[in-house]
Every structure is written in structure tokens, then in C-alpha cells.
């Protein structure tokens, strides 16, 4: 609604009207509690559905229109092609009729029945006519039929020649195949004979190898029995030597001599139990002596450590006393220097007073007196 006296074409007025319409629409939505709760714009949704349906209908109409245009175009192209085909067919038929009419002789033409006088006339020699007689033109082929007949005969001869060549080639291939088959049969026969000879020779060699293996196995069994018997004899002799021979036995007393504590080196078999016991006792005594020595060394080290600790403490006390005396001496020196500095200041002050002079009470009392 535009107020009276206001120009409705003004941009600001239209903007205000649009704003007012939006506000009114918003107020309507706010007054509807259901729409306010669910937050859905039913009118907007319906408008969207209607708009989509309208767009779908428009698209369908456009598709139908495009299909109809395509169909019309296809029909037009078919009609044009049919007309062109019919025109080409008519032109070809006309051309065939023209060529057929030109190839007719004078007596075969339609004009021969009309002009009866030409039957009694001799045939016209077209080759002897000039161009002005309109009987012969440049580019005409008067010997076309003869040439076609010769070409047909030539094609027939070529075809027969090709057939003969094919038959000869097939016969040669058959002969080659037969010769190849005969050769392969001969080769197969030779191969079979060679294989038979090979199998026979192989069987013979296998028999020889078998006999050799059997003989070798028998020889190995015989050698094994002999080796086993020899090993048994050697074991028995070694056992007897171990039990009876003084050289092989492990008795340590066989190396003992009449001289005390002396043995035969070539018969020595180790220490006797008494000697081994003596060695063990000697080792124990050595271990005990070594342990005692280690204990004594440890005690001496501990004593030396205690002495060193005592000496360290004495040195520390001496250093402490020396440091204390040094500090006392330093303090005394500082006090002396301080006292000397004070005395020097006092002396300088007195010297300054003496150098400048000072009028005291005695100065005035000294007038009229004499030192004599």
C-alpha cells in the first residue's frame, strides 16, 4: 500500500514497501505457534514444490518440442534423400537409354520404319563420314562390342590358366606332402630301429652293471667280515695287553725305583695315592701360608692407613694453628697500621697547626717577660 502523495516509482518507496511486506509475513509466522515451534516454512515449501513441478512440466514440454523437431528433421532428410535417389535413378535410366539409342545401327532405329528408302540403300560407312554428317563424334567407341568380346575371351583364358596353375600347385603340394610323409615314415622307422637297438644295449649294460654290483657287494661283504675279524682280534689283544702288560697298565708303582723319591721316567704313570695326598697337603699348607701372608699384609696396610690418618690429622691441626696465628698476626698488623695512620694524621694536624701558627692566651701573657 502506497500512501497518498507519495511517488510509487521511487526506489526508496519500493524498498520500504518490500521491507514492510517481509515484516508482515514474519509477523504472520510468529503468530502461528505450530510454525514457530517446528521452524518450518510450509508456504515456502509448497512454493518450492509448485516451482519444481512447473520446471518439470516446462522441461517435459521442451523435451517433446525438441523430439518433434528432431523427428521433423529426420523425416525431411529422408524425403530429401528419397528425392535425390529417385533423381539419380531417373538420370541413370535416361543415360542408359541414350547410350542404348546411340549403340543401335541404322536398321535398328525407330526411324527405319518411317524411311523405307533406306532399306534399299547400302549401309552407311560411319568411319568414312566427316564430322559434319553427325554420324561420328570424338570420343565414340565403335569397336566396343568387339573389344568386350576379346576382353571376355582373354578373361576366360586367364581364368583357365589360373585354374590350371592352381591344379598344378595343388598337385605339387600333394606330391610334396606325400614325399614328406614317406620321408617321415622312413625317419620314424629308422628312429624305431635306433630306439630298439638302444633299449637292447641299455638292457645289456644294465645286466652287466647288475653282475658287477653283485660281485662288488660280495667282495665288500667278504672284506667287511675280514675287517670285523681283524678288529675283534685287535680288541682282544689290546684288552690282554692292558690287563697284563706293565707298559700299558696304569699302576703307578711300576715306575718306582729302589732309590727313594726317584722313578723311571719311561714307566711313570702318575702319582701314587700317598704322593697325591702329600701334594694335596702341601698345597693346603701353601694356601694357608698365602692366606696368612695376605692377612698380615692387610693388617699392615690398615696400620699404615691409621698412621697416615693420624699424620693427616696432625698436619691439619698444625695448618689450622698456623692459619690462626697468621690471622692474629694480620689483625695485629692491621691494628698497628691503623694506629700508625691515626698517629700520622695527628702529627700532620699538629705540624699544620705549628706551621700556620696560633695565638693562644699565653701569647699575650708573654709580653713584658723574658726567657732569661
From TrEMBL:
Organism superkingdom: Eukaryota
Pfam entry (one): RIB43A
UniProt keyword list: Cell projection, Cilium, Coiled coil, Cytoplasm, Cytoskeleton, Flagellum
Annotated localization: Cytoplasm, Cytoskeleton, Flagellum axoneme
Main localization category: cytoplasm
Bias (Basic and acidic residues) ranges: 339-359
Record flagged with keyword Coiled coil: yes
UniProt region (Disordered), positions on chain: 338-359
Family of the protein in this entry: Belongs to the RIB43A family.
Record text on subunit structure and interactions: Microtubule inner protein component of sperm flagellar doublet microtubules.
Protein name: RIB43A-like with coiled-coils protein
Organism: Achlya hypogyna
Amino acid at each position: 500500500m502506497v500512501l497518498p502523495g507519495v511517488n510509487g516509482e521511487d526506489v526508496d518507496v519500493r524498498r520500504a514497501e518490500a521491507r514492510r511486506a517481509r515484516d508482515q509475513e514474519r509477523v504472520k509466522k510468529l503468530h502461528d505457534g505450530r510454525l514457530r515451534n517446528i521452524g518450518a516454512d510450509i508456504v515456502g515449501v509448497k512454493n518450492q514444490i509448485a516451482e519444481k513441478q512447473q520446471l518439470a512440466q516446462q522441461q517435459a514440454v521442451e523435451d517433446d518440442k525438441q523430439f518433434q523437431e528432431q523427428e521433423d528433421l529426420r523425416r525431411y532428410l529422408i524425403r530429401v534423400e528419397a528425392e535425390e535417389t529417385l533423381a539419380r535413378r531417373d538420370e541413370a535410366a535416361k543415360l542408359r537409354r541414350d547410350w542404348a539409342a546411340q549403340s543401335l545401327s541404322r536398321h535398328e532405329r525407330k526411324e527405319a520404319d518411317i524411311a523405307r528408302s533406306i532399306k534399299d540403300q547400302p549401309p552407311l560407312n560411319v568411319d568414312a563420314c566427316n564430322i559434319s554428317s553427325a554420324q561420328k563424334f570424338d570420343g565414340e567407341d565403335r569397336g566396343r562390342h568387339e573389344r568386350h568380346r576379346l576382353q571376355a575371351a582373354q578373361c576366360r583364358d586367364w581364368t583357365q590358366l589360373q585354374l590350371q596353375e592352381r591344379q598344378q600347385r595343388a598337385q605339387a603340394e600333394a606330391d610334396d606332402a606325400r614325399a614328406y610323409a614317406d620321408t617321415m615314415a622312413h625317419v620314424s622307422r629308422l628312429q624305431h630301429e635306433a630306439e630298439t637297438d638302444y633299449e637292447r644295449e641299455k638292457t645289456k649294460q644294465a645286466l652287466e652293471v647288475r653282475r658287477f654290483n653283485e660281485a662288488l657287494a660280495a667282495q665288500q661283504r667278504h672284506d667287511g667280515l675280514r675287517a670285523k675279524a681283524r678288529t675283534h682280534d685287535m680288541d682282544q689283544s689290546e684288552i690282554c695287553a692292558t690287563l697284563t702288560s706293565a707298559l700299558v697298565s696304569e699302576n703307578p708303582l711300576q715306575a718306582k725305583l729302589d732309590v727313594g723319591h726317584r722313578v723311571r721316567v719311561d714307566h711313570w704313570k702318575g702319582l701314587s695315592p700317598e704322593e697325591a695326598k702329600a701334594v694335596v697337603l702341601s698345597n693346603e699348607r701353601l694356601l694357608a701360608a698365602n692366606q696368612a701372608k695376605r692377612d698380615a699384609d692387610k693388617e699392615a696396610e690398615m696400620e699404615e692407613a691409621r698412621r697416615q690418618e693420624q699424620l693427616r690429622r696432625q698436619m691439619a691441626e698444625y695448618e689450622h694453628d698456623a692459619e690462626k696465628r697468621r690471622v692474629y698476626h694480620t689483625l695485629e698488623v692491621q691494628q698497628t697500621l691503623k694506629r700508625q695512620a691515626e698517629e700520622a694524621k695527628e702529627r700532620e694536624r699538629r705540624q699544620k697547626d705549628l706551621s700556620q701558627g696560633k695565638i693562644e692566651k699565653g701569647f699575650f701573657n708573654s709580653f713584658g717577660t723574658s726567657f732569661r
